[in-house]
Inverse folding.
């Protein structure tokens, strides 16, 4: 945690569930400190098995491609985990907002270049 504070990290992003679990455990040791722990965000392939571990492992959020259908059985697993929608169009952003799916987005490179 101290090293992350020194470089002023705002969040930890990982595609590896084992690494996520390790960082969440390490960041929990910073509770009550100033500055406190940083969010740990999973942006790997969100299949049912990894989402179980990600949610149980204490991820702050998970990145899910908006074009990917989120299986209804996965939604309860993410009840206490934030969702960051990876979008590739302004229309996807608006659909997410209109459907109350969320309003936190990771923009694709193609969207940033348009």
């Amino acid at each position: 945690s101290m090293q992350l504070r020194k470089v002023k990290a705002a969040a930890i992003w990982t595609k590896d569930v084992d690494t996520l679990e390790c960082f969440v455990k390490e960041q929990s040791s910073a509770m009550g400190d100033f500055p406190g722990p940083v969010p740990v965000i999973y942006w790997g392939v969100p299949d049912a098995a990894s989402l179980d571990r990600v949610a149980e492992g204490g991820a702050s959020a998970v990145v899910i491609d908006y074009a990917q259908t989120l299986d209804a059985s996965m939604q309860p697993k993410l009840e206490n985990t934030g969702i960051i929608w990876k979008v590739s169009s302004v229309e996807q952003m608006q659909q997410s907002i209109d459907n109350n799916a969320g309003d936190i987005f990771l923009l694709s490179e193609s969207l940033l270049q348009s």
The first helix runs from residue 2 to 6. Residues 28 and 37 are 7 Å apart (CA to CA). The two ends are 37 Å apart (CA to CA).
